[in-house]
Structures are given as C-alpha cells and as structure tokens.
Amino acid sequence: MLDVIEKAKGRSVTIQSPGTVANLVCGFDILGLALNDPCDVMTVKLIDRPEVIIHNVDDYNLPTDPQKNVAGVPLLDMIERLGNQVGFDVTIEKRIKPGSGLGSSAASAAGGVVAANHLLGNIFSQNDLVQMAMLGERLASGVKHADNIAPCITGGVTLIRSILPLDITGISSPPLYVTIVHPQIEVRTEDARQILRKQILLKDAIKQWGNIAGLVAGLMKGDYELIGRSLEDVLIEPVRSILIPAFAEVKAKSLEAGALGGGISGSGPSIFMLSKDEVTALAVESAMKEVYTQTGIAYYTYVTTINKEGVKIIG
Amino acid sequence: MLDVIEKAKGRSVTIQSPGTVANLVCGFDILGLALNDPCDVMTVKLIDRPEVIIHNVDDYNLPTDPQKNVAGVPLLDMIERLGNQVGFDVTIEKRIKPGSGLGSSAASAAGGVVAANHLLGNIFSQNDLVQMAMLGERLASGVKHADNIAPCITGGVTLIRSILPLDITGISSPPLYVTIVHPQIEVRTEDARQILRKQILLKDAIKQWGNIAGLVAGLMKGDYELIGRSLEDVLIEPVRSILIPAFAEVKAKSLEAGALGGGISGSGPSIFMLSKDEVTALAVESAMKEVYTQTGIAYYTYVTTINKEGVKIIG
Predict the structure, then answer these.
(1) What is the pLDDT of residue B142?
(2) Active site residue A137
(3) Are A145 and A186 in a shared domain?
(4) Please, where are the H alpha helices in B103-148?
(5) CA–CA min distance A182, chain B (Å)
(6) Are residues B111 and B154 in the same domain?
(7) Chain A contact for B25 (CB, 8 A cutoff)
(8) How many angstroms separate the CA of residue B37 from the nearest CA in chain A?
(9) How far apart are CA A200 and CA B207, in angstroms?
(10) Residues A164 and A181 in one domain
(11) Strand, helix or coil at B251?
(12) Percent of all residues in chain A with a pLDDT value above 90, rounded to a whole number
C-alpha cells in the first residue's frame, strides 16, 4: 500500500458528484436514484500530512473544519484506514443546495471518497466507500443511511436491502425523466424523522410492500404502467407532506400533466415526479411552477434524467 | 354468448390444478408461487340447469353443497354472470390435503373456474377468474386473498400488488427446487390470522420491505445469493411459527443442508425451503425428515419445482 500512496502523492483529480432522490415514494429508507442535474464539482489532491484541508468555492458557508464537514469525516476515516500516511486537500464547489432533499450531503461525502480512492488506484471496494461516506450522512442527520450514498456512487436506481450488513443492489430501469421543484424553505432531516410514527398498522405495511415489490418489478420490466400504479406511499408521505407547502396540489397537478407519479425527495422539501418522456416532464415542470408561483414561495425547478454513472471523473 | 353456451353444453374437460405456496417469507399477502407437486385433478362438465353438482372422489369428506364448497361458490358466481343459462357438474379428486397450507382451497376454486372458462371458449379474463376464485378463498378463510389463486391460475411466482383494485404481475425466476414438509397437524387459517399483531414497528416494516424488494430483484436477476439473503421475515414468522412444532429446528437444519431459505407455507403447518439444485433439495428433505421423525408427528414431504403453467388442461 505504501507504494500506491507514494506514487499518488501530489496528484489531484476533479469529479462530478450527482444529486440523488432517496426515499423513493414507497421505498422509504431502501430505494434511491441518481440525477444528471444538479451535480457538485470537487477536486481532491493527495498531500503528505494525515489531515483534511477543505476549501469551499460557493456561497453556502459550510464548515471547513473536517470534523464538522460531511466530506471531511469520511476522508478522515479513510486516512485512518490507510495508517495515517496520507492526507487530502479538497475543494468543493457545491451546486446542490444543502437542505434541498436532493442528497447534497451525500454528494460531498461520496464524491470525496470516490475521488480519493481513484487517486489511490481504487484500493477500496464499493462497499468500503459506502461505509465511509455514510459517516458523512450520520454527521448531517444523526443517522447512517445509504439511500443517497449508494446511488450517488453507483448511479441508477439502487436498492439498499439492508444497512447492517450492508447489502446494495442496482435495479435496472427504463428511460425516465425526473422533474423536481425545490421550494426555498428549510425542512430539517431530523425534524422530518421525528414526526414519523414509530408504530404503524400491519395492513398499511402490507399495502406499502405490495407497492415496493410492484415498483421494483415495474422498473426491471420497464413497465411504465406498473411503475405508475406502484408509486404510492400510504405511510410516510401523509405525515411528512404537511411540512411541504402546496404538496398535495403539486402532486395532483403533476399527475394531471401526465407524470407517472412521485413524491417527497428524501425528507424534503423538494418534490420529484417521474415521467416517461421529456415533453411530459416539461409539462409537469409548468404545472409545478404554476402552483408555486401562486404560493409566493421562491423555488427552483429541474428537468433531468436518471444518472447512470454515479460519481464521474472529469479531470 | 348464447351461441357459445349452446355449443359447449354436454362437453367436459379435465384439468390439473397445482398446489401453491403463499406468503412467500417476507412477501406476506403479496407473493406466491405454484408447485409441480401436489396437484388436484378436476373434471368439469357443462349442464343445462343453472346449478353446480359436486362429486368428491377422495376421502376428505368435503361438502358437496355448492354454497359450502370452495369450488362451488366461484362457479355459482360464474353462472350468475352468465345469466343463469348453464350449470356445471364437477368431479374433484383432491390430492392437496385441505389445511396443509399448500393452497388446497385455491386449487379447487381456481381449477373450477379455469376449467369452466375453457369449456366456454375463454370468455372471461384472467382478472375475472381471479375475482371469482377469491370467493372460494373467502368461504375457506373469511378473507378474499389472491396469493394462492393468482399463481395457481398463471403458474410461476406471482406478485399481488393490490387486491382492490386487483393488480397481478408475474415475477420471472431462475430454476428453483422446493422442498416441503407437511406435518399432519391442523393450523386453521383463521387462527393464524388472529394471532398476528395489528400494529408493528416502522423499523421492522422497513426491514421487511427491504427484503421484499431484494427478493423480487433477486428472482428477476436470477441472483441466488440475493434471493437467499432476502428470504427473511421479521414480522409474521416469529409469531406464527409457534403454531408449528419444531419449526426453528427444521429451518436451521435445512439451511445447514444448503437451502437458500424458506419459511411457513401459507399459514402453515407446511414448511417450505428453496434450493438451487435437486441434490440440495433432497438433502433438505432428509434434514426435514430427521427432525420430524424425532418429534413423533406424522408428516409428508415433497421435493418439487416451480410450476410455470398454472392450471393445465389434461383431457
């Protein structure tokens, strides 16, 4: 390993790390997908000392203390795994707004370890990288979860069957367009977790797992109708959507405009909708804009597709 | 329709109707599969009067009053849908023991309507047939459920995403062997339903739907390892298995013998295990026999494969 580290010292790499949609409607905590837009850009350089130096080149004022930075904590873990023989200088250009529900913390956490691993000749496995990156998620939300990290690293739609032990599987999917509206309000992941009921009805859980099974089958078969019918969440959405202004109206108008279905992205406040084609995805965007313009709340929208590559080396 | 009925009168058909495994481990109420063994044999003949006549050619003493017979009730419904212009004479040779947990009632209910529909030139859709056959399940257990009926009719592994509205999808699967032990004790479906908790923990439900998604993905990918890891039920099995003598030991020894996994078939008392190949399936059978011989409880075993055809016309 010493050889690898020696060779890599001084070298740097620039990567693009995608935004992600976790808690894919009925797939709460287990299904996520990667987006082609927005993406963060990060440059990681190997340095001699076992430390992480963070430079932010954006306006979000995120912490530069690596112990408090979601990219820093996973890299500190990697340094320890490497026997403290190397460190990383990291420049982060964040384009995924923190707190958007679009996997901003996962993009930093995953982007950093994938870039560092690339410089080291890919000595860590994908599972190792997910384990390290999840430490960033724990810092951000108090909970180790992988449904943003896994799709961010691998691209596509990802199933996290289990966290302990870690069990990640890619789910193939037909072409899908994703329309997102990001209202400029804050929903803290911790708050969104706290309002969930700890006890649920067995009959509701059965409905939910019927839908999850239907969604996985629909994606793998490329059956858009089945995907649409399965995009229903009877447990989480009814509780969490109260934190998101005009959620019900956005959803209703998006479905009217032809969306297959959708829901809260991550723990919100972004709302995402899946469509079969670009024309529909653009019509959904118009519908979302119309609703949000009426609320007076500032918002961004995205019309994008599923990112099949995950974190990508660009220089 | 009158023409069709006139032409069919007096004609008869003999079918084989397969046993089924419902509540496929983590797929409680939504996943089932059809078996090549055991199967019932039924002969259905069209008659002039709008009534159902039932002959049992086995030793189970099942009711011959069609209102009280699980094959009779669905056929009475079909007669009504046909405007009371026809009736059915039904001979049932039951080889799937009632109360085994191997879909005995579904085999009768589904077999009857598929046979009758065949005689009528398949005028009813698959969904119609499932709807009618579910009336037999309601008679047997008090609950309309389709996770035996659907695989019995279509063959293979079947997902019932929803009952209302009915939404059935076939799930492709790699070759799988099924080993079954049927202890000769009675577990009433109603009792097995009653002991279930109505409220469950959200965190347990999340584990369960991770496994369901993993099982569907594993089956469709032909990934035996993933199938094995996903065959885990944290909600139903811990409660229901107490009704089945030596369940834990049968399961442990089966896994030791190389089974991918398994659990309670339907609501029991049969226990089923899936294996990748016949040699393993036979080793699992030996392990099951060893455990049950020690208990002193009489039992049958089956080593079979997934039935891909469902109800089959044989004459």
Answers:
(1) 85
(2) yes
(3) no
(4) 104-119, 126-141
(5) 27
(6) yes
(7) no
(8) 27
(9) 14
(10) no
(11) helix
(12) 91
Q: Which residues of B touch A162 (CB under 8 A)?
A: 207, 210-211, 214, 229
**Same domain membership, residue B277 and residue B189:** yes
Handedness of CA A183, A187, A188, A192 (dihedral sign): negative
Three-state DSSP class for residue A207: helix
Do B141 and B24 have their domain in common? yes
When CB atoms are compared, the residue of B31, B221, B235 closest to A213 is B31
**Taking CB atoms and an 8 Å limit, are B200 and A200 in contact across chains?**
yes
Residues A150 and A32 in one domain: yes
Nearest to B107 by CA among B79, B141, B81, B136: B136
Count the Cβ atoms, other than its own, within 10 Å of residue B16.
21
The answer to whether residues A162 and A260 touch, using CB atoms and an 8 Å cutoff, is: no
Chain B touched by A196 (CB under 8 Å): yes
Q: Searching chain B, which residue's CA lies closest to the CA of residue A203?
A: B198
ipTM for the predicted complex: 0.95
Rounded Cα–Cα distance for residues A264 and A241 (Å): 7
| Whether A167 and B206 lie within 8 Å, measured CB to CB | no
DSSP 8-state code for residue A99: T
Active site residue A189: yes
Residue with tokens 């094995």: B228
Domain that holds residue B145: 2-172+308-313
Q: What is the pLDDT of residue B190?
A: 73
> How do A52-56 and A87-93 pair as beta strands?
parallel
DSSP, collapsed to helix, strand or coil, labels residue B201 as strand
Kindly determine whether residue B159 and residue A200, on different chains, have CB atoms separated by under 8 Å.
no
Give residue B192's pLDDT: 81
Number of domains chain A contains = 2
Query: Cα torsion for A162, A154, B161, B174, to the nearest 10°?
Result: -90
Neighbours of B262 (CB within 10 A): 24
Q: Which of B127, B139, B41, B124 is nearest to B90 (CA)?
A: B41
Max intra-chain CA distance, chain A? 61
- A282 by Cβ neighbours in 10 Å (0-12 / 13-18 / 19+) ranks as middle
Q: In chain A, positions 224-253, which contact chain B (CB-CB < 8 Å)?
A: 226, 229-230, 235
Please, which pLDDT band fits residue A1 given cuts at 50, 70 and 90?
low
Q: What is the CATH number of the domain that holds A98?
A: 3.30.230.10
Task: State the Cα angle at B149 between B148 and B155, rounded to 5°.
Answer: 85
Nearest to B213 among A161, A226, A229 (CB): A161
Interface probe, candidates B144, B157, B206, chain A, greatest A C-beta count within 10 A:
B206
pLDDT score recorded for residue A7: 72
| A181 plus A134 within the same structural domain | no
* Cβ partners under 8 Å of residue B106, min gap 6: B20, B22, B133, B136, B137, B148, B149, B152
Q: What is the pLDDT of residues B196-213, one digit of tens each?
A: 999 999 999 999 999 999
* CB within 8 Å: B211 and A161: yes
